[in-house]
Amino acid sequence: MNEYREKAYAYWLSQIKGVGRITIFNLIHRFGSAENVYFSKETCVSEALSRKQYEQLKESKKSWNVDSEFDKLSKQNIKFYHFGDSMYPEKLRRIPDPPYTLYVKGNLPVQGVRTMAVIGARTCTEYGRMAAGHFTEAFARNGVQIISGMARGIDGISQQIALNHGGKTYAVLGCGCNVCYPPENRALYEKICETGGIISEYPPDTQPASSLFPPRNRIISGLSDAVLVIEAKEKSGTLITVDMALEQGKDIFAVPGRISDSLSHGCNKLIRQGAGIATSPMEILNEIYGESNDENKIKIENISDDSLGNRTDNGTNNGNTMNDVTDREKIILQKVDYIPVSFETLLNLCRGSLPGLSLQQFSTELLLLQLKGMIGREGSHYFKVGTEKTVF
Amino acid sequence: MYSVITSGAVCGIDSYIVSVEVDTAQGLPGFDMVGFLSSEVKEARERVRVALKNVGISIPPLKITVNLSPANIRKEGSAFDFPIAMGILVSMGYLQEENLRNTLLIGELGLDGEVRSVNGILPIVMQAKKCGYQRCLVPVDNAKEGAYIRDIEVIGVDTLRKGIEYLSSTLEHRSKIISPTSISLENHPNITTKEELDYSDINGQEAAKRAIEIAAAGFHNIMLIGPPGSGKTMIAKRLPSILPPLSEEESLEVSKIYSVAGMLHAAESIIVKRPFLNPHHTISEYALSGGGRIPKPGVMSLAHRGVLFLDELPEFKRNALEIMRQPMEDKEIHISRSYGTFTYPANFILAAALNPCPCGYYPDPSKCICRPHEIRRYLNRISGPILDRIDLGVEAARITIANLTERTQEESSALIRKRVMEAREIQKVRFKGTEIISNADIPANRIHDYCSLGAEEQKLLEHIFITMNLSARAYHKIIKVARTIADLAHEERINMDHLSEAVCYRNMDGKYWGNQR
Lengths: 392, 517
Hints:
Chain A is built from 17 helices and twelve strands. In chain A, strands 1-2-6-5-4-3-7-8-9 form a nine-stranded mixed β-sheet, with helices on both faces. The longest helix of chain A is centred in the middle third of the chain and has 16 residues. Chain A starts with a helix and ends in an 8-residue tail after the last strand. Chain B is α/β, with parallel strands linked by helices. Chain B has three domains: 182 residues, Ribosomal Protein S5, domain 2 (2-Layer Sandwich); 238 residues, 3-Layer(aba) Sandwich (Rossmann fold); 70 residues, Helicase, Ruva Protein, domain 3. Chain B has a five-stranded parallel β-sheet with strand order 11-14-17-10-18. In chain B, α8 crosses α21. Chain B starts with a strand and ends in a 13-residue tail after the last helix. Classes of the chains: A alpha/beta, B alpha/beta. At the A-B interface, α16 and α17 of A face α8, β18, α20 and α22 of B.
């Protein structure tokens, strides 16, 4: 069987309206290959399909020029893989309900290299941002491939940070791989195309739709060795991915959060249910590289906790830039958090420790802290930022 | 016989003198009126005839011709009834023409001979004084309104009969019939009444209150952003209670607009409180700017020298908001119609209140359910040019239970007003001899003359400019607001504290406004 021909026929088969991957797997099972489906007797094919599906198939045989359409794909620089392909990722073969097709701009993740899925909430907090930075930086530096969904929030941030640190990252989309969604991640999209890959099971030009996103999550987890969840609400798309990862038998790690933060509820719940607690990237790296003596085992580059902006007891950051912080600033820094707090609330909090603090003095202090890059501002809400490294 | 009576009319906000010429002659009986008249002016014919009959004067069958001059301006309204009736009486010989010399007449007639109130008395009396007239006969309900103009006698006439009696007697006897109305601002019924709304009603919200104080002191436009129920509206509604009272000159200026709009009440007769207008967000652009064939003043003009409060700013029609761009810059609004261009003053503080996102809780991640693009779409309903014109942006924080239950001693409006007035005095001295009234009006090219910064402050501002990625406009606004803050502190120089406080009130840039990460 000519692999190239088979690809062209698989492409034809996958784009027929109303014929999903389950039907396709049935057909392949019955006829052996996509090419056979194309050339088999019509009566045989119709047995395996519903009436409507059969009509669609006949229709597309007429309108679809198998060779020229397939050429179009390669002209767009889109690589095409199908289940029967030798290049099809081994990891995906092993998951329940694997995708029949994969369209890729760029490359597929390198097989045999450790791969981590980093996922989380779209509306993330500064804490999530910081955690994403901390973990992905360590992963990227240790040659771990990062897989995510390029969504707003944690997904996009992790992938951006992986790129910033020279890591390889791959995005699995819920739309055609030539469609950039969300559009504001255009720059990130281009960059991932160049260095990693944009992967989708949907044909090119498919527009994003809410029904397409949950199924893509199984590919994210399927391509990875383990899944790191950074922030998730109690009911969220992130947890759908986790469910799929569990079904596929992957390791789950969750970044713990405070019980009062709704965006940490999902993660804390996962930990309670037995997920690994992600407190340091080293632990995760050790776990996924295991004790094996394999050649790939890299001596894990140790990452200091500086990028965490760890809070010590006196409320200052660990970094060495903190020497020029006055006592009053220390007190204010203690009150500022990763969750944005409004000016007024913060002022009242600080007055607890600094009685008689005037609004004017307070605004001066806040401004100076902002200029030093220790706190950030969103509207009139202030929040603590880790260090410059994590500001994205 | 022929007679001329003087009356007046308003066109836009300005008024002009109208000569009412009446000729009665033998001939085919009739009553003709000319002089570019609208239909309600022509209806005067019937009102005058019947009113005269009902006071016992029947008009013999004569050919009556009335001309309102200047004949090239279209005349509207019912204010010419009274002068026309008097003109007929003079031309018929009932009254002596010299008795009406230097006298301006205005008023609508009822069929029973009552003289009824009309709009625009204040500007007409002003104009009459300017043209050298000595007395005005106006409807009794409007008499107080006219009486605020000094050095001109204002006589309130209640019935046609009284008017005839007054005008037919000699000058010495007249005061026995109707004495001139006299009134002065000092004993205006409204001037001493206390403001009902006071800032002491609001617990907490220190930052928002402080920003409002700055807005009042420098006449800065202000925007209050905050979650639902945080008290944005309460704070804005109390703004008039800390603004300095209207000066006499300002009071007449504002009353003139209200007089033209027909919004002066007989009891009030003149506006002594700063206007506070709070239109609903369904307002049309014409209601905001002023409209009609001969445009009536719109809400923007009615808020002149006061506050225009737009609650739920993003809900306003975009067209309506865009109309405010030019008036907010020029402090007056020009409306062009086929009859000409009308100019109304519109120098107001814009106070706007809005939620930061459709659900109202952004950027609180535990409560906000909006997606970034929804927030952006919501805020994008307010265009950049409108935002540009707002100097202060402040967030009303969410109310805590402590705010509600604690009985704290909050500052009263009177105290804040005292500080505001002191800051205003400083500005008055600073801008003496220029067109500028307040810090908010300082044009960009004069900023360095009025708001000098020390080397250290300049360096800080440069640092802020770079780190916070400010626009040139934001830069100027920070300086202007810092100037007002320094004035409130009675400081000649703008120092670091003033600057950094001013920076605090800039949340319309950056993340709130669409530059989402």
